[in-house]
């Protein structure tokens, strides 16, 4: 089984190989990100190794704590409350097992219920409406997502991110087709913020799907110019590389 350090080294080398096939500006950005991730992993591995050297002391401490716990349990078992607590722990363990087996959709459904409860207490929280819309979109309930985004907009006013989210939900609700509503929302979103990531990513996706690879590359490049820290820049760079390869094949 490969160590974390070996996996990190392989990932870094793969990124460098990919960079060789990209234009200079994209290659430089990919190399920079790969280097940053590689250095972070190296630091994490070094910290782990330092901890390993101190493990004998840690093991002694664990043994002492285990002995103390065993004595405490022996005393506690003499009271009638031990069985009650034991049953409570068993229920908790059963809940943890059930949670682990739940699908992402089921967990997201629980999250939706939680957000709904919070909105009942504060229906004028625009951020919660926006968050609920995102949760519905993750469950592929795009119609409900649009309603939530619209409610968020009524409270917060017109925001580029909300308009982009509405257009994206509408796009998938309509079988990956840009409706007139979606086009209007995208235009308004980019008028408010020319670098709005969700809007640009949607336009890039639609262009790529319709074999407009040059258009897709243009939109993805604009996404890279945005200041969105949550953006998976490596995925965008790879998408650009794929679109450029298809563009060359068309010629």
From TrEMBL:
<dbReference type="InterPro" id="IPR056413">
    <property type="entry name" value="TPR_CcmH_CycH"/>
</dbReference>
<keyword id="KW-0802">TPR repeat</keyword>
<feature type="domain" description="Cytochrome c-type biogenesis protein H TPR">
    <location>
        <begin position="83"/>
        <end position="225"/>
    </location>
</feature>
<keyword id="KW-0472">Membrane</keyword>
<keyword id="KW-0812">Transmembrane</keyword>
<dbReference type="InterPro" id="IPR019734">
    <property type="entry name" value="TPR_rpt"/>
</dbReference>
<dbReference type="InterPro" id="IPR011990">
    <property type="entry name" value="TPR-like_helical_dom_sf"/>
</dbReference>
<feature type="transmembrane region" description="Helical">
    <location>
        <begin position="57"/>
        <end position="77"/>
    </location>
</feature>
<keyword id="KW-0677">Repeat</keyword>
<dbReference type="InterPro" id="IPR051263">
    <property type="entry name" value="C-type_cytochrome_biogenesis"/>
</dbReference>
<keyword id="KW-1133">Transmembrane helix</keyword>
<dbReference type="Pfam" id="PF23914">
    <property type="entry name" value="TPR_CcmH_CycH"/>
</dbReference>
<protein>
    <submittedName>
        <fullName>Cytochrome C biogenesis protein</fullName>
    </submittedName>
</protein>
């Amino acid at each position: 089984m490969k160590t974390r350090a070996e996996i990190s080294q392989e990932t870094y080398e793969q990124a460098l190989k990919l960079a060789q096939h990209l234009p200079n500006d994209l290659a430089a950005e990919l190399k920079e990100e790969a280097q940053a991730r590689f250095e972070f992993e190296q630091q994490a591995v070094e910290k782990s190794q330092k901890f390993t050297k101190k493990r004998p002391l840690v093991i002694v401490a664990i043994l002492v704590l285990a002995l103390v716990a065993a004595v405490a349990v022996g005393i506690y078992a003499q009271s009638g409350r031990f069985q009650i607590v034991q049953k409570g722990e068993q229920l908790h363990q059963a809940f943890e097992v059930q949670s682990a087996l739940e699908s992402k959709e089921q967990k997201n459904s629980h999250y939706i219920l939680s957000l709904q409860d919070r909105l009942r207490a504060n229906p004028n929280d625009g951020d919660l409406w926006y968050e609920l819309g995102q949760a519905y979109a993750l469950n592929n309930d795009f119609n409900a997502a649009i309603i939530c985004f619209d409610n968020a907009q009524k409270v917060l006013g017109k925001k580029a991110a909300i308009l982009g989210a509405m257009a994206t939900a509408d796009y998938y609700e309509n079988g990956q087709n840009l409706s007139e509503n979606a086009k209007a929302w995208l235009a308004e979103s980019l008028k408010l913020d020319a670098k709005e990531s969700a809007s640009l990513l949607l336009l890039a996706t639609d262009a790529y799907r319709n074999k407009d690879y040059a258009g897709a590359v243009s939109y993805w490049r604009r996404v890279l110019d945005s200041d969105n820290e949550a953006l998976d820049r490596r995925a965008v760079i790879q998408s650009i590389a794929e679109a450029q390869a298809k563009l060359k094949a068309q010629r």
